[in-house]
């Protein structure tokens, strides 16, 4: 009897301990570090300095620019993925031929790592190769751009690559959502004399809301954490005048280039809070409804 | 009882085996660097070859980390050093990158005995000896080579057809630039993807505007970053940026050099690894001169090796350091790497025309530490200057640039 009760605890215990140490333990450690004066390779004695590191961050132009870029990137990337994903799903759902083939083609980029995507797009968007040559050849020279090397374009170039990678995934989510809408609803709507547009806005879209929300959460936290794609496309410096830089990249540079561990920890905590603001409400909401992420 | 005896027996046997393995493994040497390709990798392997000949049975572990001009390697090195698992010796830029990162934190062993024993205080120039010392006045690393950062490389044919000579002063630079522009050529090629090439250009401008003595003062607090000298340098830099290729942010230094080779650009200001690049590409029409205003100043950087306190194979490492600083080692390594010896007694005949020229300058020029390549400022300071440059190159805002540079210097002076 006792063994039967203990068994589940014993089985779960290792992962609880590992998560407690390697996730929450390190989060706590990072939070402590961000309040300390450990802004060199070795600092002794290490002492707490309150919010000094956070205060300093507000004065660092690179951090401010990075935060702004994150907002631009998230908006461009999430909107792009949702629009293209929904469009693709509707097309495929409306009985295009070779559905399986299209689905595979659009889903394929998701299988790549961001580093691979980044290297490919780095060359596609190089000012003297790839897209610009293509545009030249098509007589659309006016549309040429410096992409990630143009400070005014900057992080939107990174978003293009990210959209390419994840709009297929969004499409798959929408496709599943569309397939889950009972056909009777459409039949009933048709009986009531609803037109195509009405059916779409009154039935399809509302019933896709949970999918959209899930997609926004998944894409949103990807965009807040983006790092590898920026490194691969714009390099560790985040492009000219940090036009493609993001806080995660800045954090890495601060810690491993400048040896400013406490300041880097402060950046991580800011990022963690930003992601939590997005994810925690969603988790509470989905737990209440009894569905997983 | 029986089982106890057996357990002790096994333990003893294991100890003997472990000792045996240890004795066998003692002749090992792990060298950590970011030299993975081209001439530098060839030079490193050549040094290993000599080390193995000197110590038969020596097993050399070539621990390289590729990418990012050493950035990735430095990140890996930090985790290893802080984790108590240092390599026997590692490639590190002579100067602040070594002293302010690893010496002040007490990770390195001083090498005074080795320097005395090998007589290096006489064979290395004074300017270099100063850069090898920690704040306690003791030596902490052995330089394998010397690169020169402040070199102007120009396309001879382009210069000839535009009727210009390599500019000696900053004023001449702008006269030449205007003539090149009129001839339809981009005056100055720049490849500042990753920004360090812009910082590199800026350090030559700083030297040109301030002179060797005041430039050195920037790193010791004697020269004011908020003063007129730095302001003039930023203004010159801003004007220079008006003469560079528009796609500079997309190019790397070697891709900028390609513009010069192809005659699309007249000149580029870059370190003497350009010479190795030109030799590898079979280019002969490219000439060199000191960067504008840099005559008589040798803006130096060096790859050096030191001895971490916890180096697992101390004796082998000392042998390695002896080899790195020896005439034999330097003469084997440098012609392959495309750099000159840190020693002043190497045989010039082993080197190509550019390097022979550099060796001449090395003996008589004032030696100053390179900023962009880790000699002049500690890593956090250099990172802050790189960040300031990144904004300045785009905004071309002199006041903002000087404010950021001054703030960076103040922050660096805090400790």
Topology:
The complex is a heterodimer of chains A (293) and B (415).
Chain A: H1 2-34, H2 52-57, H3 61-93, H4 99-107, H5 114-124, H6 131-137, H7 155-180, H8 183-191, H9 196-225, H10 228-234, H11 247-256, H12 261-289
Helix pairs in contact in A: 1-12, 3-7, 3-9, 4-7, 5-7, 5-10, 7-9, 7-10, 9-12, 11-12
Chain B: H1 2-25, E1 28-33, H2 38-54, E2 59-64, H3 71-82, E3 89-93, H4 96-103, H5 112-118, H6 120-123, H7 126-132, E4 141-143, E5 147-148, E6 151-155, H8 156-162, H9 170-182, E7 186-189, H10 196-220, H11 228-241, H12 253-261, E8 265-270, H13 273-280, E9 286-290, E10 297-301, E11 303-306, H14 314-325, H15 327-337, H16 353-364, E12 366-369, H17 379-395, H18 398-413
Parallel strand pairs in B: 1-2, 1-3, 7-8, 10-12
Antiparallel strand pairs in B: 3-11, 4-11, 5-10, 6-8, 6-9
Helix pairs in contact in B: 2-15, 10-11, 10-17, 11-18, 17-18
Q: Considering the protein shown, what is the CATH homologous superfamily of chain A?
A: MetI-like
C-alpha termini separation of chain A? 35 Å
Q: Summarize the biggest pleated sheet of chain A.
A: none
Alpha carbon gap, first and last residue of chain B: 63 Å
Quick check: average pLDDT of chain B? 92
Please write the string of helix (H) and strand (E) elements of chain A. Answer: HHHHHHHHHHHH
Share in β-strands of chain B: 5-15%
Second CATH tier, the architecture of chain A:
Orthogonal Bundle
What does this structure look like?
The complex is a heterodimer of chains A (293) and B (415). Helix content of chain A is 72%, strand content 0%. Chain A contains 12 helices and no strands. Chain A has helices at residues 2-34, 52-57, 61-93, 99-107, 114-124, 131-137, 155-180, 183-191, 196-225, 228-234, 247-256, 261-289. The relative contact order of chain A is 0.14. Chain B has helices at 2-25, 38-54, 71-82, 96-103, 112-118, 120-123, 126-132, 156-162, 170-182, 196-220, 228-241, 253-261, 273-280, 314-325, 327-337, 353-364, 379-395, 398-413; strands spanning 28-33, 59-64, 89-93, 141-143, 147-148, 151-155, 186-189, 265-270, 286-290, 297-301, 303-306, 366-369. In chain B, helix 2 (38-54) runs antiparallel to helix 15, helix 10 (196-220) runs antiparallel to helix 11 and helix 17 packs antiparallel against helix 18. The longest helix of chain B is centred in the middle third of the chain and has 25 residues, at 196-220. Chain B is globular. Residues 15-24 of chain B have low confidence and may be disordered. The A-B interface holds A 39-42, 61-62, 126-128, 146, 149-151, 235-243, 253-254, 256-260 and B 68, 71, 74-75, 78, 82, 101-102, 105-106, 193-195, 247, 249-250, 379-380, 383-384, 386-387, 390-391, 393-395, 404, 415.
